[in-house]
Design a protein that fits this description.
219 residues; alpha/beta; Rossmann fold; Arc Repressor Mutant, subunit A; 2 domains; 5 strands; 53% helix
């Protein structure tokens, strides 16, 4: 994020017109800073290696030549764990979505989404570390109920950890959780790290999936 509080974004997609269209849309948002583009995963990794300031968010297409989005996000997670990834795709296969969330992506947005949803997704990922649209949440929930009847893993969470996990699933920010539970934001961040460690989730999106699988919350 820039000193002015603006978000730097990279768009990775093999369709030039689509990249240009998304770039034009993003430039209309007053909270967006620098915008860069890549045509495939290899170009994306090369770009990240050479940028003076890493992006806050990568908007990543799944189907690209030379290196697709699945492999690209895996390498980004390993090399640049602080970069947030939102998948942009026409694919709405729930198993692919769940797999990518478990791998560590922060959001999943269909390419036919409205500009308003794109704006919301960017803000939510920066504030909460994850974004699910209402339709996507329902899709995930139905899939988990249908195919994941057994618990994900045995994890003992205390009352405070459960309260914080429930508030995370309600899309509360660390500051909002701190205010609601009369804690400091730093303490809440400590609880978040502990939840990630206990559950094995890679980010807040993974925590939501864990919570749904284990019937802690419904989405």
């Amino acid at each position: 994020m820039t000193k002015s509080g603006k978000i730097n974004v990279v768009i990775a997609d093999d369709h030039n017109l689509f990249r240009k269209g998304i770039g034009a849309l993003l430039s209309d948002f007053d909270f967006i800073g620098e915008i860069n583009e890549a045509g495939n995963g290899i170009e994306l990794l090369h770009l990240l290696e050479n940028l003076k300031v890493l992006p806050d968010i990568v908007l990543l297409d799944l189907n690209m030549p030379e290196m697709d989005g699945v492999e690209a996000q895996k390498q980004i997670r390993e090399i640049y764990p602080n970069i947030k990834i939102i998948i942009l795709s026409m694919e709405d296969d729930e198993q692919i979505i769940i797999h990518l969330i478990n791998e560590g992506v922060n959001g999943y947005l269909l390419k036919n989404a409205d500009p308003e949803e794109m704006e919301l997704a960017l803000k939510k990922v920066m504030d909460n570390d994850f974004y699910f649209s209402e339709g996507m949440s329902n899709l995930l929930l139905k899939s988990l109920i249908r195919k994941e009847n057994t618990k994900n893993r045995e994890v003992e969470l205390n009352k405070r950890e459960l309260s914080i996990l429930e508030l995370i699933c309600m899309e509360k920010t660390a500051t909002e959780i701190a205010d609601e539970l009369n804690l400091s934001a730093r303490t809440v961040e400590g609880y978040k790290r502990k939840l990630l460690e206990k559950t094995g989730a890679k980010n807040m999106a993974g925590l939501v999936i864990f919570a749904v699988k284990n019937n802690i919350v419904t989405i």
